[in-house]
Amino acid sequence: xxxxxxxxxxxxxxxxxxxxxxxxxxxxxxxxxxxxxxxxxxxxxxxxxxxxxxxxxxxxxxxxxxxxxxxxxxxxxxxxxxxxxxxxxxxxxxxxxxxxxxxxxxxxxxxxxxxxxxxxxxxxxxxxxxxxxxxxxxxxxxxxxxxxxxxxxxxxxxxxxxxxxxxxxxxxxxxxxxxxxxxxxxxxxxxxxxxxxxxxxxxxxxxxxxxxxxxxxxxxxxxxxxxxxxxxxxxxxxxxxxxxxxxxxxxxxxxxxxxxxxxxxxxxxxxxx
Length: 273
Hints:
The chain is of the alpha+beta class. It has helices spanning 2-8, 32-42, 70-76, 126-140, 204-211, 221-230, 238-244; strands at 11-13, 22-31, 46-50, 57-65, 82-90, 96-103, 109-115, 149-163, 168-179, 183-186, 191-198, 250-251. It has a single domain (2-251), classed as Hypothetical Protein Pfu-838710-001, CATH 2.40.320. The chain contains seven helices and twelve strands. The chain has an eight-stranded antiparallel β-barrel with strand order 2-7-6-5-4-8-9-11, surrounded by six helices.
């Protein structure tokens, strides 16, 4: 379904896509029929990102948190100053980045990132930790946690639509899977998770979705994954959990490291990143 939407839109190369690192994000869950209506309403206002002949790409992200899940609880409590740390691997487009997403005043999201091709996606190198510490202190006046380790990963496919104006984009995600070293759970395959990203939160996409009767949802992939995989309280995201996930997490085969007979310690697995 998304492949058809992307194929019908004019193409744009990555080199022509403007940066949108500081923006307002609005998220929606829509059915395939609503996605088709949205695409029809937008017409040729948006282009589809194309890299190497592809318009739909596989993403894999590994999220880092403290043993007490500090960043999860910051989001659950809706702290004004909060952050998420992840590596993101572009499985089709190529490359890996270390990304730090910051939430601060006025509902803005700021993303800071550095190339991370030379390190495994499930580890934070000393230079990566320096980047996290310096960015948190400089941007949010926060002291970085002393301990950050891998907690879980998300895998999904994405189509990215770019507004011709350059001030907005729409990411369309399907096939979402949450996983850690012990469990995994998929999202519903018949729903699309949309993220409208714009400088002011009033993009044409948001206006069209409102006309179609679609309202934003409170959702974070990482927080949904933690709540689902760890069975933690998640009142803020409960409606989305109930609607979006297909079933309870299922156990994964326990992994062992070479030369060891015991299981991998939770939060310290390797695997695909």
